[in-house]
Specification:
This is Mannosylglycerate hydrolase MGH1-like glycoside hydrolase domain-containing protein. This protein has 456 residues and is mostly helical. It has one domain: Glycosyltransferase (Alpha/alpha barrel). Helix 3 packs parallel to helix 7.
């Protein structure tokens, strides 16, 4: 399908025709990956529902079918645990166990997670992903407010989203400083980033014979995390499971405060204030929490000398060196001090990320010896983080840079057949093609003028 799709999108023609062709192709990706209740990231490598994928997908789906976008989020939050957590995977029971690892029989959520409130009738993972969901729900509502109000979408979403945020603010404030911690590299979404290397080195990997990777059946080993990475991922997940997914009881060998995760929490807390007001609740607590978390983010994770936000390792208490795209994502935070925002824009445009001179936004420092432009989150440019940085640039008045990034993202989505990610220097598509959030976020960018306003 990709081989046919890409030349068609590259054919010469008026700009409006190119955009219309891209819009139709993106719609086909989302329709083909729709299961009837949710959208899988990919029919091959990722055959279940993923948490932050569904949030980004809903933002794009709202441009096509607002009611289906609402359903996307409703399905995800229908698997929420009683303690408030939103699991990072909701498993489709019709998919064979060997199609993806770790599979439901590894996580055993309905049994091992029962005391923490896991659903008895839906199998999920036990870890979480970045909390972009309230931001997505608000964007979905804005796409068709009349339909949203008719279905009571925000009134039904608000208590679930509020519970999700309470879980993160209470159970996950492992450092006691007002920020949420991640307890597995899959939680911040940047799985094998070099930022995690030192913390992961302390983890004894699970024996290689104790698991079989299904991802290598669909993707090149050169593009994916290593077997050693996976052994450590499995060990951390198994330890969390064997402690009942209880954040207080688990002796977390990996616990860090990540700037991207917390920036998305803050942006979603602002969105949750808008949702609360629209649903007839008090928005003030959410605005207050957003302000407190912003202050904590700057105090605990901002490094003015590096010009970027850094993760903090809660085991050592130290900031983690290395320039990751996660450190640029706080540009999306409303109310971020302007001196910080200006420094972040300068860092993005500097030699470490090459904004405007390479494709999208590299996931890791181009000048670092750890950089690998092909291997997952060790360097490749991803469409979702580009969308977040674009939003942040626009928010802080860096319109020329935002305009260029928008055009680059649309061109790369068109040219690669909606690749999962691209090599920053060549722009070559890597990973899976026809990837759902790439198609969805292209739809959202298409729907906006270069100035960031919704298109007619």
């Amino acid at each position: 399908m990709t081989a046919v799709l890409e030349p068609a999108l590259r054919s010469p023609g008026r700009e409006e025709d190119q955009d219309a062709a891209l819009r139709r192709a993106a719609a086909r990706v989302l329709l083909s990956n729709w299961t009837g209740a949710a959208t899988v990231p990919s029919r091959t490598l990722y055959p279940h529902q993923w948490s932050w994928d569904s949030a980004f997908i809903a933002i794009g789906l709202a441009r096509l079918a607002p009611r289906r976008a609402q359903r996307e989020l409703e399905t995800l939050l229908g698997a929420q645990w009683r303690d408030g957590r939103v699991p990072h995977i909701v498993f489709n029971p019709s998919v064979p166990l060997d199609a993806y690892f770790p599979s439901p029989d590894f996580w055993r959520s309905s049994g091992a997670g029962a005391a923490s409130g896991a659903p008895a009738d839906i199998e999920t993972s036990g870890i979480v992903q970045p909390p972009v969901h309230a931001l997505a729900a608000w964007q979905v509502h804005l796409a068709d407010p009349a339909e949203s109000r008719r279905r009571g979408f925000l009134r039904r979403m608000y208590p679930r989203l509020a519970a999700w945020h309470r879980y993160l603010a209470a159970s996950r404030d492992l450092g006691g400083g007002g920020l949420a911690a991640v307890v597995h590299p899959w939680e911040p979404g940047l799985d094998n980033s070099p930022v995690w290397d030192a913390a992961l080195a302390r983890v004894e990997p699970a024996p290689p014979e104790s698991f079989r990777r299904a991802d290598l059946d669909h993707s090149s080993a050169a593009d994916r995390p290593t077997d050693l990475d996976y052994g450590r991922y499995v060990r951390l997940a198994a330890d969390y499971r064997d402690h009942g997914y209880d954040d207080a009881r688990t002796p977390h060998a990996f616990a860090l405060e990540d700037p991207c995760f917390n920036a998305l929490f803050i942006a979603s807390e602002h969105a949750l204030a808008e949702i609360a007001a629209a649903a007839g609740a008090d928005p003030a607590p959410h605005r207050r929490k957003a302000a407190e978390a912003t202050a904590a983010l700057v105090e605990r994770l901002w490094d003015p000398a590096a010009g970027i936000f850094l993760a903090r390792d809660l085991t050592t208490g130290e900031a983690v060196g290395g320039h990751s795209v996660a450190g640029l994502v706080p540009l999306i935070v409303p109310g971020l001090p302007e001196t910080v925002a200006r420094s972040l824009v300068a860092t993005a445009q500097g030699e470490r990320f090459g904004l405007g001179r390479v494709h999208l936004v590299p996931s890791y420092d181009l000048t670092s010896p750890e950089y690998d432009g092909n291997r997952y989150w060790r360097g490749p440019s991803w469409f979702n983080t580009a969308w977040l940085v674009h939003r942040g640039l626009r928010q802080h008045g860096a319109d020329p840079a935002a305009d260029a990034l928008r055009e680059q993202a649309l061109d790369d989505a068109r040219r690669t057949g909606f690749a999962e990610y691209v090599e920053p220097h060549s722009g070559q598509g890597r990973g899976i093609r026809r990837f759902s959030w790439t198609a969805a976020l292209a739809l959202d960018l298409l729907h906006r003028t270069p100035q960031g306003e919704p298109a007619r």
